[in-house]
Amino acid sequence: MIVERAGDLLRDDARALVNPVNTAGVMGKGLALQFKRAFPAVFAAYAEACAKGRVSPGKVFCVPVDGARWVLNFPTKRRWRSRSRLDDIESGLDDLARVLAELEIVSVAVPPLGHGHGGLDWGTVRALIAAKLGSSDVDVRLYVPESEGGAVA
C-alpha cells in the first residue's frame, strides 16, 4: 500500500529509509546530503562501496542502522552532475521490491526518486513507483516533491 506524505523523510519512523544517491560516492546535494549529515557511517560505507565499484544503477546498496532499521541507498544517477534515467529508476525499483521482501521490511519511506535534482517528471516517476510497489504488503510512505507540497529530494 502506498500513502503519500509531505515533510521530512528523515523523521519518518519507517523500518527503512530510501536515500537517492549516485554511483560516484558523492552525497553533495538535496536529500543525499541530509542523509550524509544524519548518518555518517552510512556515507562512509557507501563511499567505500562506490570506490570498489559495488554501487551500480538498478541495485540498492543496503546499510543497517539503529539495530532493526535500514538505509537503502538507491542509485538515481550515474554521476552526481548527470540527470537521472528512467530505466535506472525502473530497474532500481525492481531491486528495491526484492530487498524489501528479502529483509522482511514492513515499512519504507521513499523520496520522489529521480525527480528534483535528477530532472525526471514527477507524474512519470509517481506512476512507476505505484506500478512497482503498489501491490506490495509493505507500508510504502511516498514523500511527494516540494512542488506538490512535500520536500525536495
> How many structural domains are formed by the residues?
1
Mean pLDDT: 93
Using only C-alpha atoms, the radius of gyration works out to 14 Å
CATH class: Alpha Beta
Overall number of strands: 6
CATH topology: Leucine Aminopeptidase, subunit E, domain 1
CATH architecture group name: 3-Layer(aba) Sandwich
Strand percent estimate: 15-25%
Word description of this protein:
The protein is α/β, with parallel strands linked by helices and 153 residues long. The protein has one domain: Leucine Aminopeptidase, subunit E, domain 1 (3-Layer(aba) Sandwich). The protein has 4 helices and 6 strands, in the order ββααββαβαβ. A 6-stranded mixed sheet has the order 1-6-5-2-4-3, with helices on both faces. α4 links the parallel β5 and β6 (139-143). α1 crosses α2 and α3 (86-102) packs parallel to α4. It starts with a strand and ends in a 10-residue tail after the last strand.
Quick structural summary:
This protein is α/β, with parallel strands linked by helices. 33% of the residues lie in helices and 22% in strands.
Which key features would you list for this structure?
single chain; 153 residues; alpha/beta; Leucine Aminopeptidase, subunit E, domain 1; 4 helices; 6 strands
List the helices and strands and how they pair.
Elements: E1 2-5, E2 16-22, H1 30-38, H2 40-51, E3 61-65, E4 69-77, H3 86-102, E5 107-110, H4 122-133, E6 139-143
Parallel strand pairs: 1-6, 2-4, 2-5, 5-6
Antiparallel strand pairs: 3-4
